[in-house]
Amino acid sequence: MNQPVLGIIGGGQLGSMLSEAAKKVDIKTVVLSDDPDAPAKNFTNKFIYGKYHDTKIITEFVNSVDLVTYEFENIPFDILNEINKSKSVLPKPEINSLIQNRLTEKDFLNKNNIITTKYALIKNKDEIKDNENLLPGLLKTTTLGYDGKGQYKLNSLIDINEDIDFTKEYILEKFINLKKEISIVICRFGNQKYEIYEPIENVHEDQILKHSKIPAEVSETIKVKSKEWAKQIVEELDYIGTLCVEFFIDKNENLYVNEIAPRVHNSGHLTINSHNVSQFENHIRAVCGLEKIDTKKIYNAQMINLIGDDITIYRNKTFKENEFFYDYLKKQIKAKRKMGHLTIIEK
Ligand code: AMP
């Protein structure tokens, strides 16, 4: 059988790593990006630059692929839905639209008895006052926020200030006294068929992921429950491909889902070196209908994100045999921008 050509929307580091994984299983990729210098340009078989709303570009993209996936979740639903009419889009566009909004995402989780932080929809200042019980809390835009972008910490009502742009919609989320953060990366191939990685322990700095490691130092109860919830989420969504669930653990050992990423995830980068099949290869296998391979850990590992200027030091470093340096080849170094990562395996 001829292998399908896979279209990937988004040309960042996730698109690059998906393209690399696709090569390993003989799948050709076409990356569509709205950035002419997108890193994935260096890794994909074909690169198309254009705006996502440009129908000519979308037609060119759709005509050059057999199916489509995406590396970031903030793609307008109407675009994914339109593409899905001619070429299958996986994960399904409806899933993406449910998850890209923090309110519908949290409502979905709670409807399925999965615990999240307490939250409320906020459209104006008065609604914050009506929800004072959620303070200290974080005000987050319902859409388009990531890595702490579009977020305000409110310790009390005094912190409501003029900077908050109320033309946008927010959720107010109760602040959790965090003990730890973990994530579960899971890849679903079909009904009750999935590969699931063990919990990954994550440390954030300035709301950006800085460090990940396996094994996560968490109780057996947390390990079991986090995996159970991740399986429940992918089954409920009838999801195909790799998905990541991010969790909070508070000082009293309570587990909460923070958010879901309907895609491969930064905390799963270490799986490239720690496992026989990475989160990227599993995603490619699942969406392209290839064989599911028993995914096993070979090494314990940790990953350090190289943010902003960190990259210049690493570009000139020599590495040990158990260290794997990834440079995303981004044209411009910017503060708070993920520029690369280093994975260290325990041999
Ligand atoms: P998010 O963009 O929602 O994933 O938030 C980024 C990071 O901010 C999380 O990984 C946490 O470290 C921190 N954070 C977000 N929401 C909360 C919360 N409700 N309580 C405590 N810390 C939070």
Quaternary state reads: single chain
| CATH topology-level name of the largest domain | D-amino Acid Aminotransferase, Chain A, domain 1
Number of strands: 18
Small molecules in complex: adenosine monophosphate
Category by helix and strand content? alpha+beta
The succession of helices and strands, N to C, reads EHEEHEHEHHEHEEEEEEEHEEHHEHEE
What does the average pLDDT come to? 96
**Parts with pLDDT < 50 across at least 5 consecutive residues:** none
CATH class call of the largest domain: Alpha Beta
Give the fraction of residues assigned to helices: 25-40%
Q: Tell me the strand percentage band.
A: 25-35%
Shape: globular
- The named CATH superfamily of the largest domain: ATP-grasp fold, B domain
Largest sheet: 9 strands, antiparallel
What can you tell me about this protein's structure?
The protein is α+β, with helices and mostly antiparallel strands. It has three domains: 6-89, Rossmann fold (3-Layer(aba) Sandwich); 118-174, ATP-grasp fold, A domain (Dna Ligase, domain 1, 2-Layer Sandwich); 178-346, ATP-grasp fold, B domain (D-amino Acid Aminotransferase, Chain A, domain 1, 2-Layer Sandwich), CATH 3.30.470.20. The chain is built from ten helices and 18 strands. The strands form three sheets. Strands 10, 11, 12, 13, 14, 15, 16, 17 and 18 form a nine-stranded antiparallel sheet that branches. The protein has a five-stranded parallel sheet with strand order 3-2-1-4-5, sandwiched between helices. α1 (13-24) packs across α9 (279-287) and α3 packs antiparallel against α4.
